[in-house]
Amino acid sequence: MASNLTKRQIVLEIYNKRNHKQNVVREIVQDTLDAIQNALARGKNIELRKFGVFEIQVRKARVGRNPNRPETDVEIPRRAVVKFKAGKELKAALKDLDLDLLEDA
Predict the structure, then answer these.
(1) Domain count of the chain?
(2) 80-103 pLDDT per residue, tens
(3) Can you tell me whether residue 94 is helix, strand or coil?
């Protein structure tokens, strides 16, 4: 399986396609990620056309079990989580993915 894509690799890929300095590309990528993070932290969903949607969802409080001490119940509080829903173009691209490569991971 191929390794994960890092922020550094994203910067290098954009740098190789465009005529911009690496430090400028790095700042733009970081500013984009910061804007996404800040919006999610304020409870806003992020809609990126042709890519997908990051949605805030609330998980209900529940009782869980500690696997090391199953006799003890643990209260898991209500919390916000981020879900990602792929857009149409991304879903189409995933149809061509070699699933055997993913199973070997």
Answers:
(1) 2
(2) 999 999 999 999 988 888 787 776
(3) helix
Residue reference for tokens 């910067």: 11
d(CA 46, CA 56): 9
10, two tokens: 């994203």
In which domain, by residue range, is 28 found? 1-43
Q: Which residues contact 81 (CB under 8 A, 6 or more apart)?
A: 56, 57, 58, 59
Confirm if 56 and 91 have CB atoms less than 8 A apart. no
Residues 24 and 63 in one domain: no
Supply the pTM of this predicted model: 0.77
Query: In degrees rounded to 5, what are phi and psi of residue 103?
Result: -70, -25
